[in-house]
């Protein structure tokens, strides 16, 4: 029996799980002095989705956040979550980029690197762990816990042995969805301790209602470090409350020695901070035992819900959650953790939103099925593989062996905008948004997304926003209408995408008059004119040769040129939707006669993006 140590996750996984990773650095720094005085084993404060959110939404420099936290937390280890060869992006990087990223993270303040691979493919962890040890920092090898016909305790023990041989200092059991049951946790910790003799660190989300019990049984089995989050950002899709477990272990051989009154002060601070981000609150804040089936991890659920909201399809969320296990089975039961959680979740969303399974397949799913993320734990559905990648060869070596050193190339691509190696690595993680971020920084135009006033309601904000959800009663029948998107048209009629009693429909609206509002608030009705197509406006798709996107997104690449001959199924465009890239294919064979889309355009499914003339 030994004292139990606590890693608190409020600065990373706590807000990632409950408010879509939206907490800003300015709301972290004022409480750091108190966090630093608690005596936590570590504070998880970087990595995971925080890097992406800083650049994409908050318009902050993630490296500057790390430096500020390092200065504000002089007595506490800062811990980060690193995705092995994926680092903090959604693809494998070359070994030289991995080594540079780890070294710069260490230089800027990271003490503990929790390193995992979404496939539990140890080959994808080797270079990261070596780089952590070279930097003189603590390497925590993580096992992604999941359940499936191919995952059992002997399998996880073999992974733990491999991590030990790599030189890891501790082993983390990373239960990212709350699937680990108390007695399985006891058996698993006992088996790993016997096989490795390394300290064991347990991580389990509270989604299923099992995590508190799981931690206690793990501690009884010999785990010495547990993950929790202070109460204001705990429970639901997040983690067990720090105060609860500190109290549960007090007075026992496992007593953490932490001060409950001090932690309560910290929690009270974050309770007020959380109100500021009310618009990003996840609907999944309580116990949800469906996770035992769909396995969606806590860090993903609030982001997935927010992405579905952005797609105007939050009403289809349950259908997506039902589809996720089917996609996961097709892909050979990968653990659902970034990036595989996003890969599987986005493909499930596409399957639901397009109304046809694998009608549109993301580039990331194609790469996965080529073995570019590593070896799938189980059997892959060969029909799905054939549909997605045809006869392309499947990789069997370590995927990064196929990637040449790319750091110098990245430097040259961003020369003039990048002011440091950290800037180059930001661009490496997210080329499109990273470059835009660097350009806006240079222009002094970085602006974070808008935060609505704390405590505001939709009714109080009505003067700023038109209604997008309402009920209509017609001939005694009441219909629930929700506007989920609109398209552009060169005709008098404008298409709108709506949900009517939960069923997605498209309606055409022809305005007969418009209301012109003056600066003083007076409104004057006037007859609407059918406006001609504005420059850059895309025509409405009207025939089979018009190429359209399956879901709203942003154009990241145009793959064809006017006059080019294409076959049905050839890639024409690449769009980014829900953080994944999706290749839009030619619906027919022919010659490209018009291109209406350009890189950076926001598009919706009704728009014609490219026109192909049949041969």
In a nutshell, what does this entry contain?
With about 625 residues, the chain is of the alpha/beta class. The strands form five sheets. It has an eight-stranded parallel barrel with strand order 1-2-3-4-5-6-7-8, surrounded by six helices.
Architecture overview:
By secondary structure, the chain is α/β, with parallel strands linked by helices. It contains 20 helices and 22 strands. The strands form 5 sheets. It has an 8-stranded parallel barrel, surrounded by 6 helices. Helix 5 (95-108) packs parallel to helix 6 (126-134), helix 8 (182-196) runs parallel beside helix 9 and helix 19 (421-429) crosses helix 20. The longest helix is centred in the middle third of the chain and has 16 residues, at 260-275. It is globular. It starts with a strand and ends with a strand. Residues 458-466, 486-491, 514-524 and 526-535 have low confidence and may be disordered.
């Amino acid at each position: 029996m030994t004292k139990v140590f606590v890693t608190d996750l409020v600065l990373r996984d706590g807000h990632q799980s409950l408010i879509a990773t939206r907490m800003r650095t300015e709301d972290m720094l004022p409480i750091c002095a108190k966090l630093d005085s608690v005596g936590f084993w570590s504070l998880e404060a970087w990595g995971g989705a925080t890097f992406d959110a800083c650049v994409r939404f908050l318009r902050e420099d993630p490296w500057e956040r790390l430096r500020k936290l390092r200065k504000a937390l002089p007595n506490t280890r800062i811990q980060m979550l690193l995705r092995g060869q994926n680092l903090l992006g959604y693809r494998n990087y070359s070994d030289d980029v991995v080594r540079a990223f780890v070294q710069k993270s260490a230089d800027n303040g990271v003490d503990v690197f929790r390193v995992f691979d979404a496939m539990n493919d140890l080959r994808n962890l080797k270079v990261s762990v070596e780089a952590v040890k070279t930097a003189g920092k603590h390497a925590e090898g993580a096992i992604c816990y999941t359940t499936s016909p191919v995952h059992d305790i002997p399998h996880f023990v073999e992974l733990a042995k491999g991590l030990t041989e790599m030189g890891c200092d501790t082993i983390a059991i990373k239960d990212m969805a709350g699937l680990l049951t108390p007695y399985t946790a006891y058996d698993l910790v006992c088996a790993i301790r016997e096989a490795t003799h390394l300290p064991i660190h347990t991580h389990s989300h509270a989604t299923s209602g099992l995590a508190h019990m799981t931690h206690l049984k793990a501690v009884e089995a010999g785990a010495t470090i547990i993950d929790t989050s202070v109460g204001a950002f705990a429970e639901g899709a997040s983690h067990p409350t720090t105060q609860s477990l500190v109290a549960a272990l007090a007075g026992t051989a496992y007593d953490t020695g932490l001060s409950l009154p001090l932690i309560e002060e910290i929690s009270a601070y974050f309770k007020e901070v959380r109100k500021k981000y009310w618009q990003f609150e996840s609907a999944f804040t309580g116990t949800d035992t469906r996770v035992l089936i769909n396995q969606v991890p806590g860090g993903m659920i609030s982001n997935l819900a927010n992405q579905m909201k952005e797609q105007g399809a939050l009403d289809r969320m349950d259908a997506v959650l039902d589809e996720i296990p089917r996609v996961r089975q097709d892909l050979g039961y990968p653990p659902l953790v970034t990036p595989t959680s996003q890969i599987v979740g986005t493909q499930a969303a596409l399957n639901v939103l397009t109304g046809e399974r694998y009608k549109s397949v993301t580039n990331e799913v194609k790469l996965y099925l080529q073995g570019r993320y590593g070896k799938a734990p189980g059997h892959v559905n060969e029909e799905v593989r054939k549909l997605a990648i045809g006869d392309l060869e499947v990789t069997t070596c370590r995927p990064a062996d196929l990637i040449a050193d790319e750091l110098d190339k990245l430097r040259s691509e961003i020369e003039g905008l990048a002011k440091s190696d950290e800037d180059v690595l930001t661009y490496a993680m997210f080329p499109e948004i990273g470059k835009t971020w660097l350009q806006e920084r240079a222009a002094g135009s970085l602006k974070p997304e808008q935060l609505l006033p704390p405590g505001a309601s939709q009714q109080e904000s009505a003067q700023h926003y038109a209604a997008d959800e309402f009920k209509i009663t017609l001939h005694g029948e009441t219909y629930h209408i929700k506007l989920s998107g609109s398209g552009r048209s060169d005709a008098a009629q404008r298409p709108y995408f709506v949900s009517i009693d939960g069923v997605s429909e498209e309606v055409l609206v022809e305005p007969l008059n418009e209301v012109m509002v003056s600066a003083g608030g007076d409104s004057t009705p006037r007859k609407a004119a059918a406006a001609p197509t504005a420059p850059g406006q895309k025509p409405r798709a009207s025939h089979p040769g018009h190429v359209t996107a399956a879901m709203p997104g942003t154009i990241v690449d145009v793959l064809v040129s006017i006059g080019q001959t294409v076959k049905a199924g050839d890639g024409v465009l690449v769009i980014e939707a829900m953080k994944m890239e999706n290749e839009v294919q030619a619906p027919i064979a022919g010659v490209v006669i018009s291109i209406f889309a350009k890189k950076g355009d926001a598009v919706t499914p009704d728009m014609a993006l490219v026109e192909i003339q049949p041969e």
